[in-house]
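Task 17 of the worksheet. Students: predict the tertiary structure of the chain below and write it out as structure tokens. Keep your answer in the requested format; marks are given for formatting as well as content.
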Amino acid sequence: MKVTLFKATFIAASLFMLAGCAANQSIQTTDGKTIVTDGKPQVDDETGLVSYKNAETGKTEQINREQIKNMSELDN
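Model answer:
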């Protein structure tokens, strides 16, 4: 029974750490909009596009890096 309890504790701790790494972000655009992302956006240095999952719609979207005024992590 200790092995099962140990495995459950390890899995719970791992999920807790992963949840802490996937903090939502707030993106303020140059035209005044605010976008809340589900997790951390990914930046493509070749294209200049930032890919993110929109927390409101659940869809994966992209925005040009030049259209971003500020990007910051939200307290979850």
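Marker's comment: The helical segments are 2-21. Residues 15-20 have pLDDT under 50 and may be disordered.
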